[in-house]
Specification:
Length: about 270
């Protein structure tokens, strides 16, 4: 079996074989996080893999201790300090979401452990999302002191309904694999030891299918997401605006100091 490898950056590469491109988040045996380079690359990989004649399905998975814990502290600090950093991240976040929606090739995610922030976006924007029972899906934006903007407004209400979306996003709850499947946030939950096998099995079935039929079905269904695009743009803009606030600085400091944040109560 021949495997073709594409290196996107230090902790992001694809392995292509039998029509399936496994998009692998690293580091191996560590916790994957999106640094400045990786976050930028995650907006570009979808069009690259979608246009590859060998790729019929994309499987997003981690070789680390969790799926992806979101942005590194350095990325967050940069957004707190710099308008140019905030604008860059906003552009890249839009590219990630739009890239996954517009990718005609089916995307499968295998969610092992923590999926936070950008990691949750990759996990939940996949066309078929498979979680291990010990998965931990968290959108931690409001805990940080900013709006839940990088993907939540466009997909959570469609997946689990508005009531559950508001409940979990406003409270920054940790959702395990079983609960995620129960409320419809993921497609399927399996035992952790079966996660990769099941994800590869589903990816292989998709890769063996009719690519035009699958692409046209995905395009049609994703018009539900495109209809929600104004809500996504609004939430993303408000998230980025929030990173310029004193509350975001306090939220980031509180997380680092492992204490409850002392947010100001001024209303906007």
């Amino acid at each position: 079996m021949t495997i073709r490898k594409i290196e996107f950056c230090k902790n992001l590469h694809a392995e292509i074989t039998n029509g399936v491109a496994e998009l692998i988040l690293g580091p191996q045996d560590g916790m994957p996080m999106t640094d400045e380079v990786m976050h930028g690359q995650l907006g570009k990989v979808w069009s690259i893999l979608n246009s590859d004649p060998e790729v019929q399905c994309i499987l997003v998975r981690s070789e680390g201790k969790g799926f992806c814990a979101g942005g590194t502290p350095e990325v967050v600090q940069g957004m707190l300090d710099s308008e140019s950093a905030r604008l860059r991240v906003m552009r890249e976040a839009r590219e990630i979401v739009q890239g996954m929606i517009d990718c005609d090739v089916p995307i499968v995610s295998a969610i092992n452990g923590a999926a936070v922030g950008a990691g949750a976006a990759l996990a939940l924007l996949a066309d078929i999302s498979i979680a291990g029972q010990k998965a931990k899906i968290i959108d931690g934006h409001t805990k940080l002191g900013v709006a839940a903007g990088d993907h939540a407004a466009i997909i959570w209400p469609l997946l689990c309904g508005m009531a559950k979306a508001k409940y979990h996003l406003l409270l920054c709850n940790t959702i395990d694999g079983n609960e995620a499947e129960r409320i419809g946030l993921v497609s399927l939950t399996v035992a952790d030891e079966d996660l990769l096998f099941k994800a590869r099995e589903i990816a292989a079935k998709l890769a063996a299918g009719n690519p035009t039929a699958l692409a046209f079905t995905k395009r049609s269904l994703n018009h539900w997401l495109r209809a929600a695009w104004p809500a996504f743009e609004h939430s993303l803009t408000l998230e980025i605006l929030g990173f310029a606030s004193a509350n975001a600085k306090e939220g980031f400091t509180a997380i680092n100091e492992k204490r409850a944040p002392a947010f100001t109560k001024e209303k906007y």
